[in-house]
Write a structure and sequence with these properties.
Layout: H1 3-17, E1 20-29, E2 33-41, E3 46-56, H2 69-85, E4 93-104, E5 107-113
Parallel strand pairs: 3-4
Antiparallel strand pairs: 1-2, 2-3, 4-5
Length: 117
């Protein structure tokens, strides 16, 4: 299993433990982008688009540093495409979260950034 897939599975566990239901994983809009996880809390009209990032701690920065404005734009456009393809969510509010996994010599630290962008 590739490292990205491992952390995406870990992120799904974290989201489910927080009471969210997974709507989709690895949603691809060809030529636009991909969203790692789409989730919703039960009893709420909220759709959460989750980007999962992992990075070994280095001089190049943390996992959070790897989410550029260009990447954010791709996620927004992919979310718009998802909503076009799934009209049942048209009235839902949307939120963009990031689940970060910083891999360090002594272990992994995760952080959930709610409404990250």
């Amino acid at each position: 299993m590739r490292q990205g897939a491992f952390y995406e599975m870990q992120a799904q566990l974290i989201l489910c433990q927080a009471g969210l239901q997974i709507v989709a994983t690895n949603f691809i809009a060809t030529g636009i982008g991909e969203i790692d996880i789409i989730a919703t809390p039960s009893q709420q009209s909220l759709l959460i688009f989750v980007e999962v990032r992992s990075r070994k701690k280095s001089q190049f920065g943390t996992a959070a540093d790897s989410i550029s404005p260009t990447k954010q734009g791709r996620i927004y456009r992919t979310a718009e495409y998802f909503l076009q393809q799934h009209p049942e969510y048209a009235e839902y509010e949307c939120r963009f979260d990031v689940l970060l996994f910083d891999v360090m010599a002594d272990g992994v630290v995760h952080e959930w950034l709610v409404a990250a962008f």
